[in-house]
Amino acid sequence: xxxxxxxxxxDACLTRVCKPVKEINKRTLDLIDDLFDTMYDAEGxxxxxxxxxxxxxxAVVDTGEDNQESPLVLINPEILEVSGEQTDYEGCLSVPGKxxxxxxxxxxxxxxxxxxxNEYIVEGEGLLARAxxxxxxxxxxxxxxxxxxxxxxxxxxxxxxxxxxxxE
Length: 168
Ligand code: NI
Description:
Elements: H1 26-41, E1 46-48, E2 58-61, E3 72-83, E4 86-91, E5 98-104, E6 107-113, E7 119-125, H2 127-139, E8 153-154, H3 155-167
Antiparallel strand pairs: 1-2, 2-3, 3-6, 4-5, 5-8, 6-7
Nickel (II) ion (NI) binds near residues 92, 94 and 134.
């Protein structure tokens, strides 16, 4: 188990198209363990390999929801289907302390491989769909800040907005 350094926006690793995984070896499994450790340590719901400087198509997701077969390891993930729409605040461990409003599909169906290179399908709505799509974008060198409508705000500003909404 090890924590890896999370690359922040501006780092070239976050703008590259990652290479597919062809075989799973000890280094791959160590990387996946480290992605989970690093994600949980930073209290995120997803982390992609390029965020720790490894340009491979691997990401982990754990939304912490009861209804999910989580945690998920996504190797060479592909989006098969999306539908609907949701708009919500979204953040990224590579953009620390900030969130922005992003509109995304409300449903996503994704094909990926597990750590034994068995193909599987995961379907998600709401937060899980958002997390799956967000992480897969990282593997193609894209980040949520490209899709934000409105300014990036701090977590404190978001808390203030949510408080005001409750009072209304
Ligand atoms: Ni991210």
